[in-house]
Amino acid sequence: MNKFGKRLVVALMAASMLATPVYAAPNTDEIQAEKEQKEKEVQSVQAQLQTMVSKISETEEKLITKGEEIQKAKEDLAEAEKKQEQQYESMKVRIKYMYEQGDTKALEDLFTSNSIADFLNQADYIETVHNYDREKLEEYVETKEQIASLKESLEKDLEKLEKMQASFESQKEALSETLTQKQAEVANLDQELQAAIAQAAAEEEARRKAAEEAQRKAAEEAASKESASNSNTTSGQGSTSGNQTSGNTASGNTTNRPSGGGTSNTNKNDTAEKPSTSKPSTGSGSNTSTSTGNTSAASRIVSAARSCLGTPYVWAGDTPGVGLDCSGLVKYCHSVAGISVARTSSALGAGGRAVSSPQPGDVVCYPGHVGIYIGGGQMIHAPQPGDVVKISSVYSCGTPWYRRYW
Fold first, then answer.
1. For residue range 142-167, what is the model confidence (pLDDT) as tens digits?
2. From 37, 67, 186, 275, which residue has the greatest number of CB atoms within 10 Å?
3. What span, in angstroms and rounded, lies between the C-alpha atoms of 120 and 328?
């Protein structure tokens, strides 16, 4: 390596060492670790939320079953009361016959009794009424009491389930809020991480450019010094050569030297073709269905929902004007349009076809609740026990989704 090359290398190394700035690199590892921890927390909350949604669905099914049992108990109770009344009327006819035959004691006991049970306890009853009548009456009284007790027990069970469902709903809302908060924290950390990475990249680019600039300046300085040195050397050699020539001429000797001046042709391709950086065209990636379904069926669904307005909320209710729960309302409205759907809100929320732009007749779905979308951000639904079927704005909380069955 000649003297100029050595000087250039030394200058470049020195410039690189002296001109490279020391930057405080962003601590991306800590941000990444914190982000991963928050993501784990998000996953944990999501798992808890999913468990709570499952509990809500299970409790809803139990509430519907319990509601059906209460309705059956009410029907059985009404039937027992009807049979009891029929038996009582038949007994009165027989007592009247006995009275007409001259036995007034039974008639007096009947009309002076406060109730059937009081009449059955009359000491003279066995003497005036056949044992069969007494057994049947006692049987119906016992059946009536059992059904009444069952109804009361079922209603208490229903009340407990309703409280449990309300507790689950409250916990779900709390978990939803926590999840939203955790997701926001992850998003913030992700932004911090991206900013830190961008800052590190910018600092690295600045360092690289500074080093390149320092190397360029060092190379220029080294080249300038070498040029000056070469110029001085050439000047000295020229003076010596002139003296030698002058002496030779004087002695009469001439020396012919071949021309040493060569021609250097350097061809540069200033228009060298660069690799193509164009990217293939990409589509939107989303296929939007142009089919809107059976709009006439959707219209019948909405009309059926409107016809149910004012119907009391009843667990397991599926009869307009008598009693409806949320899924019972949705099932009834679809049946009017000739469409068979599931009975529970969880099954309704998982069936049909998902839609992102709801139309009147679609099912508005939440964990544990459903309604009929009627347009304009409104729905018809059966909200809760103690309320009635009514029109409400679609709840913004809970992030509803929509399913289509028409």
1. 777 877 887 888 888 888 888 888 88
2. 67
3. 44
* Percent of the chain's residues with pLDDT above 90: 22
CA distance 285 to 290: 16
Q: Which residues are catalytic?
A: 326, 369, 381
Give the torsion through C-alpha atoms of 286, 291, 292, 296, to 10 deg: -170
pLDDT digits (tens, 9 = 90+) for 83-137: 777 777 776 666 666 555 555 555 566 566 666 666 556 545 545 556 666 676 6
Residue 322 has pLDDT above 80, yes or no: yes
Q: Amino acid letter at 157?
A: D
Indicate if the alpha-carbon torsion angle 60, 66, 67, 69 is positive or negative: positive
Rounded CA separation 51/45 (Å): 10
Residue bearing tokens 């809020």:
177
What mean pLDDT is predicted for residues 380-385? 92
Nearest one of 140, 93, 57, 109 to 344, comparing CA atoms: 57
User: Taking 50 as the threshold, does the pLDDT of residue 285 lie above it?
Assistant: no
